[in-house]
Input
Amino acid sequence: MQYPDGTEIRIDDLIWADEGIQIARIVGILETEEEYTAWDEPGPCILYTQDIFSAAGDGNALYSLPADLLVQEGIGALSENERLLLRCLCRILADRTGHDVHSPDCNCHIWKYPVPMPDGTFNHRWFLHLGATRENAPHPGWYALDNNDLSFTPLTDEELLVLWGHPFYYTTPANGEIAQAPHPGS
Output
C-alpha cells in the first residue's frame, strides 16, 4: 500500500492524520481480504494509533482507515525534518515539564492545530495531550507549546472549550488539581 505521494506505507511510520493536524503511528497494513474483513472493513486499510510512543495493544485505541480515504483524511508520512522537530519537542517537553513521553506510564498525543488570530490569519501551534495509563503516571493534561520561549503551558477547561468546542476527559485547571470533564458524547 502507498501514501498519496506514492511512497510505501510501513509499520511504525509516523504520519499526519485527522486531516493533517495530528501525528499518529501506523500499526497495521491490512491488504488481504482475510486481514481487512477481520476488521469489518470492505477493502484494504491501514491501522493507526494516536499514541505514537506506546506499543500497539497497550490499551490505546486503534483506528482503521480505508486506503481510498487516505487523500481525503490528509494521511501522509512525516518528513525527516518533521521527525527531527518531533524529537526536539519531546525532549523539550521532558525537560520543561518532567514528563517522559516514552514511559509506559504515559501516553502522548500530538497536534499541530491552526488557531485563529484576531487579524483573520491562522497561527499553527503545537498541542500535546498526556494521558495516564497507570495510577503512578505523571499528571495528565493538555499542554500548549509557546513558540516564543519553547515552554509548555497547561491548558485550562476554558482554553480547551475555545480550541475544540468542548472540554476533554482529562484537563488541568488553574488550581493544578486533576479534573475529569465529561467525555464528548457522554
Helices lie at 33-38, 80-97, 157-164. The CA atoms of residues 161 and 167 lie 5 Å apart. The longest strand covers residues 106-116. Residues 80-180 form one domain.
